[in-house]
Specification:
Elements: E1 4-7, E2 10-13, H1 25-39, E3 46-51, H2 57-65, E4 69-75, H3 78-90, E5 97-101, E6 116-121, H4 128-131, H5 136-139, H6 154-162, E7 167-176, H7 182-190, E8 195-202, E9 208-215
Parallel strand pairs: 3-4, 3-6, 4-5, 6-7
Antiparallel strand pairs: 1-2, 7-9, 8-9
Helix pairs in contact: 1-2
Length: about 220
């Protein structure tokens, strides 16, 4: 039987093939809504890129809370995209979310028209050392949705190095991070040469959980 996750105001089927959404990721969505509501005039279209959409929980939640949003949601897994599409149909949001199979930005390079106001991601960030000590319930999630390379930072490096090519000037990058990764990701943004205004936000447990950067210009 497929697992069902309660996230924000929704129930999401995970199909046992996607990351099971965690409570702390709600902070990522809330922070995105807060920022966009202040920076994008009401009714003006907001272009959002969701990297690693999984079951679609971030994309669908943002579609609900930002009525003017249009979202491109990426995932490397066909099975995950199938689940995400099903969830989007359930809530009548399939017309506002484009689901794309892509290993991060790989299949976006040929689409020069894409330019986003917000790039958001909860990427795989478990390191090799931490993977062995994960609770058994977490290990039930797909390996590809958890493992972030030997130091857990592989996806952050790629996002920081490539995301800005698909962002408008002044656009915001928001990413969830592991419990001990926030300062490192913030430093990546600050030394990138293309991002500024780097900040760290805590989750409801007081853990540094969200890192924000803004494209210069």
């Amino acid at each position: 039987m497929a697992k069902v996750a309660h996230f924000m105001d929704f129930e999401f089927e995970t199909g046992n093939t996607t990351l099971f959404p965690r409570f702390e990721t709600e902070v990522l969505v809330e922070k995105a809504v807060s920022i966009i509501s202040k920076e994008i005039p009401e009714g003006e279209r907001c272009e959002i890129l969701d990297i690693g959409t999984g079951c679609g929980n971030i994309a669908i939640s943002l579609t609900n809370y930002i009525p003017s949003s249009r979202i491109v949601a990426l995932d490397i897994s066909e099975m995950a995209l199938s689940v995400a599409k099903k969830n989007a149909v359930r809530y009548g949001m399939e017309q506002r979310i484009e689901f794309v199979k892509s290993d991060l930005f790989e299949n976006l390079w040929q689409r020069s028209e894409l330019s986003f106001d917000l790039v958001i991601s909860n990427p795989p960030y478990i390191s090799l050392a931490d993977f062995t000590s994960l609770p058994e319930a977490v290990k039930e999630d797909p390996y590809v949705a958890l493992y972030g390379g030997r130091d857990g930072m592989d996806f952050y490096r790629r996002i920081v190095n490539e995301a800005h090519f698909f962002m408008k000037r002044g656009a915001v990058l928001l990413t969830e991070v592991g419990y001990d990764q926030a300062s490192c990701v913030k430093a990546m943004l600050e030394t990138s040469g293309v991002f500024g205004d780097a900040e760290i936000y805590k989750d409801y447990s007081g853990i540094d959980r969200i890192v924000k950067g803004r494209k210069n210009g």
